[in-house]
Every structure is written in C-alpha cells, then in structure tokens.
C-alpha cells in the first residue's frame, strides 16, 4: 500500500488511496471520510521507517484467537526483553498480541512516525479483547498507568503482571492504590498464571 502526506502544513496528515479516493490513515485524528485532494500535489511517503509504522497502524494485530494488547515500559533492554518473552508465550498459545515496542520512537523519528505510534496504540487498545500490563519496577510506568486507566474505562479485561520479588517483602513496592483498585488488586507474578486464567 502506498501512503501520502496531504501537504507540508501537517506532516501527520497521512492518506491512502482506495478506488480513486483518498482516505485519512489516522481516523482517530482526521475522521474516516474521503478527503478532496489534488493528487499531483500529494507527497508520497517513501521512508522505510514511516512506511513500517503506517503499515503497523493499519493492521495492529495478526491472526489469532483473541487480541491481546501488551502494555508496559519499553525504555531499556530489560523492559523490552520481558515484554517480548510475555508476548511470545501468549503467541505460542495461539493468541495474537500487539507489542508497542515493535515500532520504536528514537531521537531521529519523524513527526509521522511519532503520530503513527500514538494512534496505533490507541487503535490497538480499542480493538483488543484483553490487556496484559507489565507493572514491574518500583513505580509503575506512566504510559502503562494511562493505558490501564483507558482500558478500564473501555471495560476491557485486564491482567496485571508484576514479578518483582520486592512485592513479597514490602508493601511499599506494590501498585499505586488507584491503579490497583481498577483491577481489584489482582496482580499476577507469572505470564503462565495469566495464560491459564485467559484460557479458562
């Protein structure tokens, strides 16, 4: 699929062509109706990272029995490794997961990639059946907390994962009281425990 930028006044206003009409890619921000454009003035998106991000937005989930959104921090190797292990374990059981770190923003990311990451996370949350949130760390990641709150408001099925051994010794390292309350303080220490609950 080819993508285009409507004009250089808004580098997030991406379009795609279907049956001779041009539609916004990010329907959450620009609506779903076709846009009147002069095709000769469109700017084709050719950057590989931008195309990858837009493709992921268009199809956030693969095939599988249930769609699972993987919330969690992704800002260091340990976070990403843990998220990947959990996602792989769920995929092995036949679930399809959306793992945000599969499209990463870095210091060189364009405005279009940043917009795609925001909108694709929002779209994937709306489309998911289940949320598995990695809550490891002394404090819950701010983005993860926001995702949990949004999923609670959307009445999604939520499972919180926290394997940090400090949980066993000191209440100070448990979840924020409000976040814990959103899930009736149900926090699980292994992905296999969560898989068992989902399958049952």
CATH class of the largest domain: Alpha Beta
- How many helices? 7
Specify the structural class: alpha/beta
Please tell me what the overall shape is. Answer: elongated
- Strand fraction band? 15-25%
Domains (count) = 2
Largest sheet, strands/sense/barrel: 5 strands, parallel
Spatial extent as radius of gyration: 19 Å
* CATH fold naming of the largest domain: Rossmann fold
**N-to-C SSE series?**
EEEHEHEHEHEHEHEH
What are the segments in which pLDDT stays under 50 over at least 5 consecutive residues?
none
Per CATH, the architecture of the largest domain is 3-Layer(aba) Sandwich
Averaged pLDDT: 92
Span between N and C termini? 39 Å
Number of strands: 9
Helix content: 25-40%
Strand arrangement in the largest pleated sheet: 6-5-7-8-9
Can you give a write-up of this model?
- The structure is a single chain.
- The protein has 200 residues and is α/β, with parallel strands linked by helices.
- It folds into two domains: 44 residues, no CATH class; 133 residues, 3-Layer(aba) Sandwich (Rossmann fold), CATH 3.40.50.450.
- It has seven helices and nine strands; from the N terminus they run βββαβαβαβαβαβαβα.
- The strands form two sheets. It has a five-stranded parallel beta sheet, with helices on both faces.
- Helix 2 runs parallel beside helix 4.
- The longest helix has 17 residues.
- It is elongated, with a radius of gyration of 19 Å.
- The relative contact order is 0.13.
């Amino acid at each position: 699929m080819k993508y285009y930028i409507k004009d250089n006044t808004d580098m997030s206003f991406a379009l795609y062509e279907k049956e001779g009409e041009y539609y916004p890619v990010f329907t959450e921000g620009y609506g779903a109706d076709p846009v009147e454009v002069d095709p000769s003035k469109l700017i084709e998106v050719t950057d590989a990272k931008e195309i990858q991000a837009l493709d992921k937005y268009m199809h956030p989930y693969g095939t599988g029995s249930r769609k699972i959104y993987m919330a969690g921090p992704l800002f260091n190797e340990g976070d990403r490794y843990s998220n990947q292990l959990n996602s792989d374990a769920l995929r092995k059981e036949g679930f399809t997961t959306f793992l945000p770190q599969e499209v990463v923003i870095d210091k060189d990311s364009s405005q279009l990639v940043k917009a795609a990451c925001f909108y694709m996370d929002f779209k994937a949350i709306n489309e998911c059946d289940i949320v598995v949130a990695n809550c490891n760390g002394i404090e819950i990641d701010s983005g993860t907390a926001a995702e949990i709150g949004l999923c609670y408001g959307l009445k999604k099925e939520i499972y919180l994962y926290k394997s940090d051994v400090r949980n066993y010794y000191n209440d100070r390292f448990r979840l924020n009281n409000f976040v814990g309350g959103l899930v009736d303080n149900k926090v699980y220490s292994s992905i296999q425990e969560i898989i068992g609950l989902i399958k049952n």
